[in-house]
Specification:
With 219 residues, the chain is α+β, with helices and mostly antiparallel strands. It contains five helices and eleven strands.
């Protein structure tokens, strides 16, 4: 199963179908409080709109199951919220709220036309968005002597740039420094080998579990 995707930033897009305007906003959310806030703002920004249909996907955690919700907000049942939700799920998006605001253009679209229009509006917004991949990364900690910290930072950051890894700020102690690298789990052995090479075996790499991070799609 592919890694879920998240929005790098909120985005808006518009689709016109037989003079009806479908204005879609995609918001990155982590709670139902976020959802309520964005819905209130949509009502304030578009008080004259006939419909404000929604779809929501929030990823599950150890303490709570995933949340998948949708609302047709007065459109015929199944013609708005569900196709919007399916568009989010098909794009593998999580922690995302879609709000599609419809201004009626005077021509009825029928059930099939509404499904196509709401789907197209959300897909257009997704196409306009910058997306990040939510990945599980290994946490590798490299401990070096203070005298070797400068050399270590240069070597580790050079390696990280070449392998789409992330180097956290260096931790300095009384007797040494620790560099923390967030890296694809399959590349930890390669990092360990490179560390042993540039340090002539003096630096020690420790595996410190995993973490979840949002990274560019190419990483």
């Amino acid at each position: 199963m592919p890694d879920p995707l998240v929005l790098a930033a909120d985005v808006e897009a518009e689709h016109v179908e037989k003079r009806s305007r479908f204005h879609t906003r995609l918001h990155r959310v982590t709670s139902l409080d976020d959802v309520d806030r964005h819905l209130r703002q949509a009502r304030l920004d578009h008080p004259d709109a006939r419909h404000r249909c929604t779809a929501l996907v929030i990823g599950g955690t150890d303490d709570a199951p995933p949340v998948h919700r949708s609302s047709d907000d007065g459109e015929p049942s199944g013609t708005a919220g569900v196709p919007m939700l399916q568009s989010l799920l098909h794009a593998h998006l999580t922690d995302t709220l879609a709000i599609t605001i419809r201004y009626f253009g005077g021509i009825k679209l029928g059930a099939g036309g509404l499904v196509r229009a709401y789907t197209a509006s959300v897909e257009r917004a997704i196409s306009a968005a910058t997306l990040l991949r939510r990945a599980t990364l290994a946490v590798a900690r490299i401990e070096v002597a203070l005298a070797d910290a400068g050399t270590a930072e240069h070597a580790v950051r050079t390696w990280a740039d070449a392998h789409d890894a992330t180097v956290e700020p260096t931790e300095y102690g009384a007797r040494g420094a620790v560099l923390t690298v967030l890296v694809d789990p399959e590349l930890v052995d390669a990092l360990a080998s490179d560390t042993a090479r540039w340090s002539s075996g003096r630096a020690h790499l420790e595996r410190a579990g995993t973490t979840t991070a949002d990274v560019p799609l190419h990483a």
